[in-house]
Amino acid sequence: MPNWLIEKLRLHNMILRAPEDGGGAADSGNDAPPPGDAEGGSANDSAPPSDLPPQGRNEIYRPDGLPDHMLGQSDRETIDKMAKALSGYRQKDTDRGVPADPAAYSTFGDDVPEALAPHIKGLSDDTAFQRVAKIAHERGIPVGDFQSLTTELYAVAQEMGVLEPFLDVDAEREALTPENARDLSPAEQQQARERRMQENESFLDQLASREAGREGGVSKEVFDYVKTELGDSAKGHMFIEYVRRLAGGDTSTGPFGGGANGGGADPRAELARKAALPENTPGNPKFDRASYDQLQKEYERVVGN
Questions:
Q1: What percentage of the chain reaches a pLDDT higher than 70?
Q2: Are 120 and 151 in contact (CB under 8 A)?
């Protein structure tokens, strides 16, 4: 019998002996589970569902927008590449002169013009400069570029006449110390300076109070402006004391005032002395309204309306 006929008969026999559920004859007597599944499950049952995100199928995580050359063969390699790139960017900033700390912007060299040096020197303590330096650091501006712009800004302001003279705090403190307080302790000298400035400001407050509502008088805003512009320097206080003497509120030549040069008591000098007292100074913790009102009546009687 030809071989092809034998194979055809064998196949026909297998089909006839197959069970009704469609399983092949070779499977009819074999109840063992498929290879790879000891409990009878399919070999593919352990695979993750196809609807899981990529990281759920052991795929490499790729952040949105990550360029191809930054993606590694594993998450660790991707992180290493990103860290290396960040280090490179920082090195480029360093090479360009971008500082690690915004405070570096206030460290100027010796090439600052002499006329501007006092102003530039104090920028490290200037709150406005610190805020601008912070923005410059965030924008990655090199130290040299930022300092060149700053120096040029001060130079232009000086040429235009809008740059105020530098205020030497130590020199101003020394100039404000009254002559009769120079041998006192530092704490007592400070009290004397504060008392001197308070007397001058009280004098201006008294003038403002007298001028309020008077026809042709000067508004309180004007006196506030004078205090703001003159009250932060020794020369400003010297000018206020000069005005006090002209107004008769102080006829002494000392920095404090409070007395007359002549032998008799000067009513206006006495008013100025009382005006400088804490109980007659608005805003002072010891301010007394009754004493203040009484002083105003004395002013009206001595000086007039």
A1: 69
A2: yes
